[in-house]
Amino acid sequence: MSKSDDYETELVQLQLALIALQKKAIKDGDKILKGVAKPDSEVIFPFEVSALEDGRLAR
Fold first, then answer.
1. Whole-number Å distance between alpha carbons of 50 and 55
2. 17-37: b (≥16 Cβ within 10 Å) or e
3. 11 lies in a domain?
4. pTM value?
5. Full residue range of the structural domain in which residue 11 is found
6. Is pLDDT above 80 for 59?
7. Number of structural domains found in the chain
8. Please, what sign has the CA dihedral across residues 51, 55, 57, 59?
9. Distance (Å, rounded) from C-alpha 17 to C-alpha 15?
10. Is residue 58 part of a domain?
11. Distance of CA 39 to the CA centre of its chain
C-alpha cells in the first residue's frame, strides 16, 4: 500500500467517524447539552475559560 492509499483510507475513516458523531449529536443533543455549562459571554471559545482560569491565556 502506498502512502496516498494510507492517507485516503485514514481520511475515509475520519469522515465515517465524523458522520457517526453528527448522528449522535442529532439523536442525543439535548442530553449532551444538559451537562454543558454556559460559557462566559466574553469568551469566544469554550476552551478559553479553563485557559483563563489557570493562566495559560492572558487577556
1. 8
2. eeeeeeeeeeeeeeeeeeeee
3. yes
4. 0.47
5. 3-53
6. no
7. 1
8. positive
9. 5
10. no
11. 15
| 9-26 pLDDT, tens digit each | 999 999 999 999 888 888
CA distance 17 to 29: 17
Q: 43-53 pLDDT, tens per residue?
A: 556 666 666 66
- Residue % of the chain over a pLDDT of 90: 24
Q: Can you list the alpha helix ranges (DSSP code H) found in the chain?
A: 3-34, 47-53
- Quote the mean pLDDT of the chain: 74
Q: How many CA atoms lie within 13 A of 2 on its CB side?
A: 3
Q: What is the reported pLDDT for 21?
A: 87
> Which residues lie closer than 8 Å to 59 by C-beta, 6 or more apart?
52
Cell 448522528 belongs to residue: 23
Pairwise CA distance, residues 26 & 19, whole Å: 11
